[in-house]
Amino acid sequence: MHQTWKVLQPTPAPRPVSPPTTTHSLQAIRHLTLNPTSVTSLVKATTRSYQSEDVRGFDHWTQATFQPLNAVLGGANFTQGSYQMLQNRCRAASQLKAFKLQKCHRVAMATHAQKREGDISDAFASLSGLTPEPLEPRFATLKSELIAGKENVIQESFVRLLEALREEIATVKILKSKAIPEIDFKDIKDASTKFSSEYKRRGAAIIRNVIPPVEAMEMKEELREYIAANPQTKAFPSDNPQVYELYWSPAQIRARSHPYLLAAQRFLLSHWHSQDPQALVSTAHPTIYADRLRIRTPGDNIFALGPHVDGGGPERWEPEGYGNAKVYESIWQGRWEDHDPWEISSRLAVKSDLYRGVGACSMFRAAQGWLSLSTTKAHEGTLLVNPMLKHATAYYLLRPFFSAKKGPMSPKTDAFDESFLSPDNWVLDCPQTSWLQGALPGKGQELSDMLHPHLELNSTMVHIPEVRPGDYVAWHCDQIHAVDQKHEGTTDSSVLYIPACPLTAHNAEFLARQRQAFLEGLPCPDFGGGIGETNHVGRPGIEEIEKASQGRDAGMVAFGLQEFDSSAVGLSDTQRELFDRANKILDFYD
Ligand SMILES: [Fe+2]
Fold first, then answer.
1. Separation of alpha carbons 328 and 146, rounded Å
2. Distance from C-alpha of 346 to C-alpha of 91, rounded to nearest angstrom
3. Which residues surround ligand 1, an ion (CB under 5 A)?
4. How far does residue 348's CA lie from ligand 1's centre (Å)?
């Protein structure tokens, strides 16, 4: 019998209450030491209602009720909203205490302070009104050190890359959306080598009919009901919502733990390999990352996210970021042709979130992905990807080291002349500049024709083929992607963002923090602070995750709510060791 959290009852959702009136009061809560005993004492000292688990919407609270608590907190302005947050934390702490998991709770909350409140615009310069600019001078030094003593081979490799890009671009211009391979879910157990080789070459793929279409449409209906029942839900933009700040809606819970979706992720993750057989990673055991969702409405041109790469900005060049793991070592050695985007052991030590940006992903997300909840074709608010995975990655990494001797004859970015683009026109900077061409601390890197002229983004960003409800779309974590500038369709373009994340020790640590956020109804730890869905009516609990798992363990396990079974048949020694490590991190073992 495996230890599970299933006997824990989900926190009953209270009736909506007024939001906190001051940020000061929320700050007070965030900085409390989350010792279950002290928190409980604090709450009990303030009200007897807590002891009776009464959550009647706090209609009966008065200023006098908060006075004792404010006195304990040294004059903080305690409000109903902040009080409820404390009470939620107290409940979660009590649940953890019941399972002897206080250690996990304290470590998680002590070492990962909540990020500030935000929305998807925080993660991208263009959505938050910033423009590309040179970075602080230390980046010039960093770049120089990265290629020191290898200047000639880097220059030669860049010339080879520009020549290879021409061929690749010509192919993509012919293929367009056909560059993206597809497979039906029923065929993944016997996938063709053609599909797999195309997926690895292009970086993106569509798995059709992962969730039965009727079920996917039910999920969208559930989503609409949850949003309607909770009008306080935050979204971007706030006056015409397209991307919702929701992480724990019934539809998301149902989709992420769905056995079919987990099977699709397992299949996609199987395309990675490890050059180190001892590396503690299992692609056969996906873990859950609680991302947001999009319901893009016809006519929207605000959620117009151009070509970009997630998974960090300057971190890709920094020794403490991706350099920590030597992911791009062959590129820095002047051998971009040897770069293997699908080697997984080198990714385990990556730190992709050095600046703790709001919305910056700190989990190892091997593939980004979403589940379609609508029928959507090109120009209807959908996804575009750059299908030149290896070439484009090498280019956006090497591009910042070079400058053109002579600028373009025409300022029009879609009509750069040959002499401007010619390899002869591009020379290694000496000294290096502090530019990283669209990579800004705490933001995803945004690319453009002006900054990355050789990628010919105008023609190499291809629409994914038409998607239907239940299709799962995935793209590589290094891949350039974008969304339509304008939704020119007539119906909603809706997706649940659900990436494919393998089990690693690092990801297990994230699961522990994410599990805590789930219990409290707070935003997923990567996505900013605030009360999130704490007060949302109909917010699911552990029972709903168990139900979504449909009697199979994987959905609960992937969420960190049930231990990894290290006695299972067929595990490798490495997987067994990883399971033991993950179970300790998740406090299933001492
Ligand atoms: Fe993205």
1. 11
2. 40
3. 310
4. 21
Parallel, antiparallel, or unpaired for β 501-504 and 281-287? Answer: antiparallel
With a CB cutoff of 8 Å and minimum separation 6, the contacts of 569 are none
Rounded to whole angstroms, the Cα distance separating 274 from 261 reads: 23
Strand 204-208 relative to strand 182-184, pairing? parallel
**Residues with Cβ < 8 Å from 527, sequence gap 6 or more?**
115, 118, 245, 247, 291, 292, 358, 359
Report which residue type is found at 217. Answer: M
Kindly give the pairing relationship between strand 462-463 and strand 383-385.
antiparallel
SS3 call for 48: coil
Residue 121 CA to ligand 1 center (angstroms) comes to 11
Distance 150 CA to ligand 1 centre (A): 33
- Among candidate residues 139, 50, 141, 142, the one with its CA nearest the CA of residue 91: 50
Classify residue 145 by burial, with Cβ atoms within 10 Å: 0-12, 13-18, 19+. Answer: exposed
Q: What are the phi and psi torsion angles at 39 (to 5°)? A: -65, -45
548: which 2 tokens?
């979504």
Average pLDDT for residues 179-190, to the nearest whole number? 98
CATH entry 1.25.40.10 includes domain 121-585: no
Q: Distance (Å, rounded) from C-alpha 184 to C-alpha 244?
A: 29
- The β-bridge partners of 467 are 376
**For residue range 327-350, what is the model confidence (pLDDT) as tens digits?**
999 999 999 999 999 999 999 999
Closest of 573, 551, 545, 577 to residue 564, by C-alpha: 577
Please name the residue that has the structure tokens 């030669």.
Answer: 156
Task: Tell me: pLDDT of 401 over 80.
Answer: yes
What residue spans define the domains of the chain? 23-111, 121-585
Does the pTM surpass 0.85? The reply is: no
Q: How far away, in angstroms, is 264 Cα from ligand 1 center? A: 20
Please give the full DSSP string across 80-149, using - where no structure is assigned: HHHHHHHHHHHHHHHHHHHTT-HHHHHHHHHHSPPPPP--GGGG-TGGGT-------THHHHHHHHHHTT
Cα-to-centroid distance, 369 and ligand 1 (Å): 9
